Amino acid sequence: MKKLFILVALLSSLIGHSNEDWGPTGHRTVGEIASHYLIEGVHEKIKELLNGQSLALVSTFADEIKSDDRYQSLSPWHYVNFPFDSSYDAHPKSEKGDIIIAINKCMEIIKSVDSNKEDKAFYLKLLVHFIGDLHQPLHIGLAEDRGGNQFQVRWFKEDANLHWVWDEKIIEKFGMSYSELAANEKLLTPSELEEIQSGSVEDWMNESRLLCLDVYEHTKEDENLSYNYMYRYAHEVRHQLQKGGIRLAVLLNQLFA
Ligand code: ADE
Ligand code: ZN
Ligand code: ZN
Fold first, then answer.
1. Whether this model's pTM surpasses 0.70
2. Pick from 95, 109, 27: nearest CA to 66
3. What confidence tier does 58 reach under pLDDT thresholds 50, 70, 90?
């Protein structure tokens, strides 16, 4: 009995803390919302490339391969870190790549007439994931605390870290599945939608960086985050997921039109 308890505790700590992304619910919500915004014909082309799998389903692929040694070099592609008083362009780029380099590479391979179906499908799955990550503010983070992974907080009295709160904890509190989250998107006016769809991948990154700054201004180390934090940020998280989905569709509509 005791052994079983230790095993369960060990497994749940591994599952809980080793995850470094919007949890599956966040990523799947982005994929599902994107599928609502695909233009005529693009949906079919993508479905064919993914052998029938949905964008929601493939959105977590990049996390599923993280522990596979063959894909270790992809780990730094999920995020970018630079200091608050610097900028993406001014700060030296990591040789190992970052989320912007990764997104550009994925788009190049999907577009290229020289890449085969297998590669296109592989990089499409990564792209779906990285556009999700791009909208998690702590993925446009600071190197010194590894994007908040080393920023200790408490979440409703339990030990957590800031990154984990933003990847999963806030979303878990909604108590909704990804389909429910996607089906209950905020209604947007045409001009709000147009605003979200405009800009470049780097503009979208800079927007996440602004939210990241706001998070650091409103979160103290070792603080117990609870309902007040939900009041402040729940709608921001929902909005980030919605923007991620809409913008993923913008890129896919360009790539597959
Ligand atoms: N590891 C180091 N920095 C990170 C970040 N900003 N997001 C996720 N994982 C990281
Ligand atoms: Zn993360
Ligand atoms: Zn990721």
1. yes
2. 27
3. very high
